[in-house]
Amino acid sequence: MCKKTKQTFIISIITAILSLGACLFLLFQIQAQGLSLENNVNVLNENTDKEIAYTNINKKIKETEKERQDIVDIFLHDEDEGLDFVNEIEILAPSLGLSLETKGLGSLENEEGGVEAVIISFVYSGKKSSVIAFSKLMETIPYHSSVESLSLKKLNTDDFEGQITMFVTIQSL
Known about the structure:
173 residues; Alpha-Beta Plaits; 2 domains; 27% strand
């Protein structure tokens, strides 16, 4: 080969190596930007989910305002003497290491149209011992009550979920 051909060949190899290096550099930059974009999309989705949950909670609060007032009317005879049953349960559950959600709140009326009982449904989850202890406590609460249904379900190795529906009435002494 002549000198000019060798020189062109060497320049071509150097150019190919530099081009390959630039392509690899750009490929890694594109990959890093893709990961960054994916993380940003995940954060955006999480924030959107939180916003939807917040909106649903506010909607549920507005929808249940009448039912909550009915419960207050049922359990509170006057301002000095009250039975804050639902709040006591909502305080008790976390103290046992459980997460608690009130699934249903309603009333059972007698033939005269008066409220006979409040129907309350809870879903709670946590460690097996806590779920069982909470279930036993709910069966023996210091109010006149009866358990309509109780179910326990294993979620994973250590966690269980309980669902209870009960009727709570006030007995006059």
